[in-house]
Amino acid sequence: MDSEDEEDSYPEDEKWTDALEPGPDDVPAQVNDGSSVPGQAGTSGSHQGGQAKGHVSRMELNTNKAGMDGLDKEKINKIIMEASLGSRYYENEQKKDQQVNERIKKILAAKSKLMNNEVAAAQVKVDKMVKELERTRDLSRTIVHIDMDMFYAAVEMLEKPELREKPMAVGGTHMLSTSNYVARRFGVRAGMPGFIALKLCPNLVMVRPNFDKYRKYSKQVREILEEYDLNFCPMSLDEAYLDFTDHVVKRSTMSEKERTYMESVMNQPEGSVEKNEKKEEEGSEKSGDVTALLSTETAHSGESHDVDLQGGKLLGSISEAGEMGGQEDGVSGGKTHLFGISAEEAVREMRFRIQQKTNLTASAGIAPNCMLAKIASDMNKPNGQYVIKSTREEVMKFISNLPVRKVSGIGKVMEKILSAVGVKSCTELYENRAMLYKLFAPISFNHFLKISLGLGSTYVGRDGERKSVSTERTFGGKSRPEDLFRICEELCESLAQDVEKNGLKGRTLTLKLKTVTFEVRNRSQSFQNGICSFKDMHTAARDLLQTEIRACRPHPLALRLMGVRLSSLLSEEEIQQQQKQGSLISFFKKTQLKSTKSPPKTDNETNKTTVEDESCQKMESEMNKDNHFEQKSESLSSSNSPPKDSCKEENTNPLSREQIDEGSVEEDPSEGFTCESEAEVPRPSDNVDETEAESLSENQRYLCPVCNVEKPYNSLEEFNQHVDICLNKGEISTILHKQAKAGGQTSNVSQARSSAPMKRPSTSSSRSNKRMKTGRKRQYSTLDKFFAKNS
DNA sequence: CGGATCGAC
DNA sequence: CTATGTCGATCCG
Ligand SMILES: Nc1ncnc2c1ncn2[C@H]1C[C@H](O)[C@@H](COP(=O)(O)OP(=O)(O)OP(=O)(O)O)O1
Ligand SMILES: [Mg+2]
Ligand SMILES: [Mg+2]
Ligand SMILES: [Mg+2]
Question: Which of A7, A43, A225, A436 is the most exposed place for a label (fewest CB within 10 A)?
Answer without folding.
Answer: A43
